[in-house]
Every structure is written in structure tokens, then in C-alpha cells.
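## retry 2 of 3
previous attempt timed out at serialization; input unchanged, resubmitting
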Amino acid sequence: MSTATQINTIQDHLTNVGHISAREAMLDYGIVSLRDAIYRLRRKGYRIISEERINPVTNKKYIRYWTTKQYRNARRVS
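## retry succeeded, writing output
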């Protein structure tokens, strides 16, 4: 998958779902470098929030990327 296709795939996912993690990008789309796609989207002007989380099963840190709108909505519900 080309870099442009990866960026479009992540952009579509964020538009439809509102958030994504590296694991989801890898398993759902075969995208290995989510961080690069997020960087490129930010350079294009997209506002994306990075939230560090801890996996409750493995106890390891990971990053979940959010659209600003979905992030605010998720914080209101919590």
C-alpha cells in the first residue's frame, strides 16, 4: 500500500470512527507506521490528539490517536 493510500485510509478511519491505535492500524489495514501517517495528516492541517494509555491486559503503554471532536465527546461521557 502506498504512503498516499495509507494516509487516506487513516483519514477515512478517523472520520468514520474518531480514533485509532497502532494495533488497529496494523490488524485492520496492514499499516505498520501509523505514526508516520498521523505526522503527514497533521502536516496537511488535520487536528489530531495523541493520548497515552495503558493496556489493561499487558500493562504496556500505547498511543491512541483521536480527532479533536471525538476526543471532546469521549471526555464528556466519562
